[in-house]
Amino acid sequence: MKNLIKYISIVFVFTSFIACETLEPVEENRLDFEFILTDPNAAEGVLLNGYTGLVNQYSFSEAATDDAVNNILDNNYKRMALGELNSQFNPASRWGSFESVFWVNRFLETIETGETQWSRDELINEMFQMRMKGEALALRGLHHFYVLQAHAGESASGELLGIPYFTEFIEADGNFNLPRLSFEASVQAIMADFDEALNLLPTDYGLSEGNVDEWYTNLEDFDYVKYQTVNDNFFDLRISGRIVKALKARLALFAASPSFLDSQSYYNMAATNAAEVLNTIGGVAGLDPVGNEFYASDNNIQSAESLWRASIGGNSTTYEKRMFPPSVNGNGEINPTHNFVMAFPMQDGYPATQANGFDPQNPYANRDPRLEKYVVLNGASFGGGIINTGVGGGNDRLDSIPGQSTTTGYYLKKLLHPDVLINDDGTTQGKRHAAVYFRYTELFLILAEAANEIGGPDHQVDGITARDVIAAIRSRAGIAQSDDYLASITTKEDMRELIRNERRIELSFEGHRFWDLRRWGLPLNESAKGYFFNGSNYVELPSVEVRNYQSFATYMPIPNSEILKFSELEQNNGW
C-alpha cells in the first residue's frame, strides 16, 4: 500500500453537465490535491477510480472448487487447488482492493473542504456533493467487503479477526501500520459506510417527481428540474441506494454464515434488506423469466435480471475463444465436473439418484433443463455440430489435446453467447458482453437462505418465504409442476440443503462457489470427478483432479509481504 503515489494522476470524466475544457500542460502530468479542489472534472475522476476493481462474474474461480477443472496446466486456480495456496501465492487475494479505498478517501477529503464547485447553482452544487459523497462511502464499504471476504479469519489464539479499516487518505510516507479489527467490528464499519451512503444516494436514478427520496425533497428550495440534472438516468450504472441495500444483504448473509458469526441478528438483517428491495419489483412475481440466461443476448443483458452491471461492451469473442470446445475453435479451458452435473435434479425436481429414475447409462435424459443450458454434454448439439467427448470424439474427446480438450467429459456453456462464431479461417463474429456485479436472482437466494435460517421453510419476511423463492426459481428453470419434491421439504435442515444446491446451480460459474464453500464451512477437498463414454458404456472417473487444501484454508491468508511490512497485522492461523 505504501506504493500509492503521493499525487493523483487524473482520469478526466466529462458528463452532460460540465463542458470540456482545455488545460494548460502540467509538469509530469501529475496534478496535486490543490488542483483537484479547483476542478470538478478532476475531482470526479478521483471518485471514478473507486469503480475500478469491482468484482464481476468472470473470475472462473470455480476451477479451485469441486465444480470445475481448468485444463491449462499453469492456471493459478488450478495450482491453488492442487496445494500451492500459501501467504505468498494466493490468486484469490483481494488485498489490492485497498487501493480503491484510498482513491475514494482522497475524494472524500475533496468533498469535505467544500471548495469544489460542481455548478454555479447552489442547490445543484449541494445535490452533486450529496450524491457523490454517497457513492464514495458506498464504494469504500464495498471494497472493504471484498478484502474482508478474502482475508477474514481466525488468529493463532482462535479470535475471529477482520481487516484494518481505512477512513482517511494516507500519503506515501504515512502510517499504514494499522491492526485488524475484530470480524464483527469490520462488518459494522462497512455497514456504517453503507448506512451513511443510503442517506445521500437516490434510491434509483431517473425517479419521477413523486418518488424522489425525502433527503432530497427536504432540501431548501428543492426543484425537481435541478434534481434531474444531478440524478437522471444518465447515471444509471453508478451505485444507488437500491444497490447499497442489496450489498447490505450480501454482507449480512456473509457475516451470519456458520464459518463466521452464525448469527440470527445478521440473518434478520440480510432477509430484511433483501425483502425491502425485492418487494419493490413485486416480490417473487418479479423474478425475471429469462434471468437464468442473463448473458445469452443483448436483450437478456439489458433485462430486469441485472440489479447492477457495467456498460455493455462491444462485440468480442474473448470468453468464447477460451471456453468453446476445440471443434468450434475454442480452447476448452473450463471443464465442469461430474460433481456439478449431478447437482442438477431430475426434470420432476427430485435429486438425480437411481431411486428417482436416474440412469447412469442415459445420464442426461429427463434432467433439469438448466443442465443443457449451462453445460455442453456428450452428444450435445453445439456450434453447428455434435460434441462428442467420448470415443470417436476427435479433438473434443476427453484428454485428446492436452491443455485444450476436456479433462472431465464436459465443456462450459454458461456465460457464453451461443451466436458467437470462431471460424476455421480465423475470422470471427463476436457478440456483446457485460460485467454483472449483482443479479436479482442472487438477492432472492440471499432472502431464501436467511429466512430459512431464521424460522424454516415457511417463515415469512415481509410476505416472502424461502419456499416461495425456491418454488419460483425452480418453476422458471422448467422443473415439472407441481414440484412434489419441494412440497416434501418440511425442515430447516432439508431446506438448507436445497437452497445451497439451487444457489450452486443458479449462480454457477459466476464466482460464488469458491466463497460459499468457505462461509458454510463445507469440505474443500472433494475430488473433481469426470464422466466418460468408452464406446459402449459411461464410466465415472472418480478423481480427475485432486483438491489439496490445508485444514485451515477455510480462511485465506493475509499476503506475507504485508505481514513483513506492518507489525500490527496479525496473520490468520496456519499461514
Automatic annotation (TrEMBL):
Gene3D superfamilies per record: 1.25.40.390
Localization per record = Cell outer membrane
The protein's superkingdom reads: Bacteria
**Main localization of the protein?**
membrane
Keywords per UniProt: Cell outer membrane, Membrane, Signal
**What SUPFAM superfamilies does the entry give?**
TPR-like
Q: InterPro entries under this entry?
A: SusD-like_N, SusD_RagB_dom, TPR-like_helical_dom_sf
Pfam families named among the record's database cross-references: SusD-like_3 (PF14322), SusD_RagB (PF07980)
Q: What is this protein called?
A: RagB/SusD family nutrient uptake outer membrane protein
Gene source species: Winogradskyella litoriviva
